[in-house]
Amino acid sequence: MDANPILAEAVRGNWVENRHRGALIIVDADGGVIASGGDVNRPIFPRSAIKSMQALAIFDRHAIDRFHHTPEELALACASHHGEDEHVSNVDHFLTRMGLSAADLECGAHMPTNGKARDALRAAGRDPSPLHNNCSGKHSGMLSVALAMGVPTHGYVEREHDVQRAVRAAVEYVIGEDLTEDRCGTDGCSIPTWAAPLRAWARGFARMATGRGLDAGHAQGAQMLFDAATSHPHLVAGTGHLDTLVMEAFLGRVMQKGGAEGVQCGAIRDKGWGYALKCDDGNMAASHAMVAALLLRHADPDANQKAVLEQFARQPIRNVRGNVVGEMRAT
Amino acid sequence: MDANPILAEAVRGNWVENRHRGALIIVDADGGVIASGGDVNRPIFPRSAIKSMQALAIFDRHAIDRFHHTPEELALACASHHGEDEHVSNVDHFLTRMGLSAADLECGAHMPTNGKARDALRAAGRDPSPLHNNCSGKHSGMLSVALAMGVPTHGYVEREHDVQRAVRAAVEYVIGEDLTEDRCGTDGCSIPTWAAPLRAWARGFARMATGRGLDAGHAQGAQMLFDAATSHPHLVAGTGHLDTLVMEAFLGRVMQKGGAEGVQCGAIRDKGWGYALKCDDGNMAASHAMVAALLLRHADPDANQKAVLEQFARQPIRNVRGNVVGEMRAT
Question: Does residue B1 form part of some domain?
Fold first, then answer.
């Protein structure tokens, strides 16, 4: 197996310190390849990058008809949010509206991703709740699926639970490939994650962006989810994060979502293209540089969009005293 | 340039999620290669892994004769300590004994590496001081060099300051190669870091372990530094850290020191071998797996030493709820 190409590197002073390899692909909804690098057939775990695909179960199982989810709720179902006040209060409201509470979430609790939110929680002497978990919006969507299916919510994170079967089926439908038990793991938030080729993830995003190859229900659900996410970019991630800044700048043209361990997926909606990339070593900053370079090259950015992307394509590295001593950059 | 081999990988469930490439070498003091993998001629920044080499300037410049540094002080000069009480109080004492204080340190302040020490500092509502900086012991050693040389301490972190010239000369002497301006950067603690091949770093450690190829003064200094570090492993890193646990377990037989961005250097002292490795992508956990595998294979560990190394050669990966969902492992 050939090594994937070096797509990002960290420079210190005048010398390259770290090298980050990866693979990436941009395709149209028919699988036509716009750009590609590295091994795009190797199955990779998409992690949180495909929350919008997983959220299609909300439409499959008619949870949308029962709860008439708001765009804010759909954006949170696609989100890895930063635990800021807006996120926590919206997820709380999402659950309350379904007659549920944080106690029904099975994602576990972690400190907010956002630094100020973390400091505020510490200053208040409070422990984080499952509402602060970056996945609490996705889990609220999964609880909605459980209620719509009329199954017990308890254990909804387990691979054999009807909810995860529904989520798996929705993802398989949209990527047009089977997910198999021989490449399955458990995500940070306790639900299953299934490995599939970058090629398949990218095509799934192109199909969601265009509706091509999807039945009317899935096509409409995909459009509602992408519209919700791109209209509420702050709910999808948080202050200063690439996903939020990119979606804000592109005004609906780009759906962008990162996943743990160096995964980046999304769609250039007006072109009908989906993309997926994975940094081999899981480095998030490197994957940010990679996806910024991809969008700089292929998403026809205007000056403002370019400025947003360039701050991720070349990220300053600082020492303890705050001086810039190097940069992470796309190659 | 061929890609370096995959030396560690992270598995999630039953599928490999991340791959970490790197290079490593074990040599004797004459440069004879015991084991080698990947490109060992590519210059890499050694970062904190060579603090014991940098500390040789204390002997070169006769700071040792003026201050009669204790083994604790010498261990701290080689350390990336975790900011625990024992570290902070010893560095404070180190400085006081020279008529200096934390105000003379130019390393900057960061929160303690140790979680409990961080929590205690936060609970006390205090900001971290330069004493908490993991490099404060090394910087105290550099201040000792400045005083012994009779030069102003101010600006001792700068590349052109006499202290850094002395440190550079000590490192060049022990590795037997020149450090050059075309591969130089600034370390996290604001001093220069110079790239040189893994081969050279490993040989420098073998020379320090044996004294071979060094004059009597350097040989004695190297032995005092290695003895100090291996006799005070907790001062060199901190609770639960690989460097501390490995040096505790090997009872003086192994000098082991990590550096930022996936560097590991050291010596198997009783064999007279030095080693150096670098994870291409800078991942620390992966570099821990790599060096644990190296020592398992080449350091003739007994059962207790083996048990210590194995917890780093295969490190559990947990989800938010604390369940094991995968592992980082040497390949």
Answer: no
**How many domains is chain B partitioned into structurally?**
1
**CB–CB of A141/A106 below 8 Å?**
no
pTM of the complete model: 0.97
Task: Give the structural domain span for B312.
Answer: 6-330
Cα(B205)–Cα(B184) distance, integer angstroms: 21
Chain A residues near residue B196 by CB distance under 8 angstroms:
none
Instruction: Kindly report the nearest CA distance between residue B157 and chain A, in angstroms.
Output: 12
Whether residue A1 is predicted with pLDDT greater than 70 in this model: the reply is: no
Residue B132 lies in a domain: yes
| SS3 state of residue B324 | strand
Each residue's pLDDT tens digit, A156-209: 999 999 999 999 999 999 999 999 999 999 999 999 999 999 999 999 999 999
Which CATH number goes with the domain that contains B22? 3.40.710
B321 touches chain A (CB under 8 A): yes
Instruction: Confirm whether A58 is domain-assigned.
Output: yes
Q: Is residue A21 part of a domain?
A: yes
Kindly provide the ipTM of the predicted complex, given to two decimals: 0.96
B27, exposed or middle or buried, with CB in 10 Å at 0-12, 13-18, 19+?
buried
B289 and chain A in contact, CB less than 8 A: no
Contact B241, B312 (CB under 8 A): no
